[in-house]
Amino acid sequence: MTYDVGYRFSQALDPSGLDTIATCLHALQAAAKDCSNAGKPFETDPAVVLLAQHLGSVATIKMPDRPALRSLCGDALAEIARTPLLVLLAARGVSYDADAKRTFHTEARRALKRLAGDLQLPAKSFDIRVCEGGPAVSGEVILHAEELYLQVSISGFGGGEILFRRCRGRSDYCGELNHWARMPALLDTSALARRIAQELGLFLAAEIQPRLVA
Predict the structure, then answer these.
(1) How many angstroms separate the Cα of 147 from the Cα of each of 106, 127, 152, 187?
(2) Is residue 157 in some structural domain?
(3) Helix/strand/coil for 163
(4) Closest by Cα among 24, 14, 12, 10 to 48
(5) Cα 193 to Cα 116: distance, rounded to the nearest angstrom
(6) Domain hosting residue 49, numbered range
(7) Count of H helices and E strands in the chain?
(8) DSSP label at 123?
(9) E strand or H helix at 162, and its extent?
(10) Ranges in the chain, pLDDT < 50
(11) Which residues of 71-104 are buried (b: 16+ CB within 10 A; e: fewer)?
(12) Looking at residue 207, what is its pLDDT?
């Protein structure tokens, strides 16, 4: 393999082609690799510093000033806080994003545990399991009880991300007619439990009280 360890200096002296944040970042990453190839420290390399300064100037041109950017970041954080993770992940998808997919599985399992409690399912009368699937899909998080099969997934098929149907035991994977709900239904599992009981004709020992949603 041949190394062009001098290219970063030429690019730093004439960065005219680096006119977007993306191209500047690519140049910085390439400069870092050049430093490693040449055995030079990255932080104090003059080409790297010049390229970083050029990135700053491009970013200043492309975006508002610093106070405005801080305000926009604050607004974005507030919006994220108002949008629970499950809803956010359902909107953006998790395909080919292992971290997002793992987070989806964790959050869905937690929601299904709350739902099982609201459905008054005895501790050993149901299973919650994950079908991982491949990297292109979200996989499914499944609640399987004696009379209920429910799965949560993120896909473009069906009438929603939550599929539920009545079944005949935990060895019945086909069950009866499919019913659908959207992901936000998992934000209020007590309301979802009442809906499931009503649509599937399940018996609940007592009236489910609405859950306070933080």
Answers:
(1) 24, 12, 17, 23
(2) yes
(3) strand
(4) 12
(5) 8
(6) 7-63
(7) 7, 5
(8) T
(9) strand 162-166
(10) 1, 208-209, 212-214
(11) eeeeeeeeeeeeebebbbbbeebbeeeeebbebb
(12) 53
- Give the whole-angstrom CA distance, residue 192 versus residue 176: 19
DSSP reduced 3-state for 84: coil
Integer CA distances (angstroms), 169 to 126, 149, 174, 200, in order: 10, 9, 11, 14
124, two tokens? 């050993």
Quote the number of domains for the chain.
2
209's CB contacts (< 8 A; 6+ apart) are 190
CB atoms within 10 A of CB 186: 23
CA atoms within 13 A on the CB side of 185: 21
The pTM score is 0.65
Whether 19 is in a domain gets the answer yes
- Strand locations in 50-155, DSSP E? 126-131, 140-145, 148-152
DSSP three-state, residue 140: strand
For the record, the structure tokens of 176 come out as 């009866």
pLDDT of residue 134: 93
On whether residue 209 sits in a domain, the answer given is no
- CB atoms inside a 10 Å sphere around CB 139: 22
